[in-house]
Amino acid sequence: MGLLDRLAPRKSEPAPRPQGPASGPVDDPVFSTKALPKFLSCLTSRALPVLLDLGPVVGSNVGFFGEQLGCKIFVEDIFADLDRHVREGKLDQLPAFLKQRFPQADGEVDGILCWDLIDYLDKPAAQELATQLMRVLRPDGALLGFFGNAPPQDARYTKFIIVDDVNLKHRSYAASRGRQTSLLNRDIIRLFSGLRVSDSFLLKNNLREILFRKPV
Known about the structure:
This protein has 216 residues and is an alpha/beta fold. It has 6 helices and 10 strands.
């Protein structure tokens, strides 16, 4: 459900990046990222890393990671799952759903793109998601998460589109619920208690980027 199991091209066979309209509107705001290049460097030592992306499928992102890493990518659109549970009035069932959501084996994944998903979850769902992500992440694997540092606003999700290794486009789209209360750093660290913080950045757009590593 919502799974893209795609073997991206090897580094020696870079995938062409989409051009023109497929890359999105030119007015999408572009923001710098400090954590993405560090996330990439965590995965370059693996011959064929496995990447788990929790956002919607973005073809240019798949091409980017294929070119940079020659990786195998699983796209699990948890935002869509959250939206469905809200629309159906089953938000209380989301933690149990997330417990069974990921088919990946323990320690199968080298890198996880969590984006800003945690900001939209209640505490029980956020804790279950974190538990499952820590389960599938291999020792010395990396998880990249974004966390809001400003009061919640309207109900919008953000699709993060990679421009290059230091820039991201932020494209908003309709959501069935808005961001919940912003988490403090200590709450985020407690949530991912099985991981250690490798790097943390507070950007000018009030977004916190945190790179986690799983201890060996």
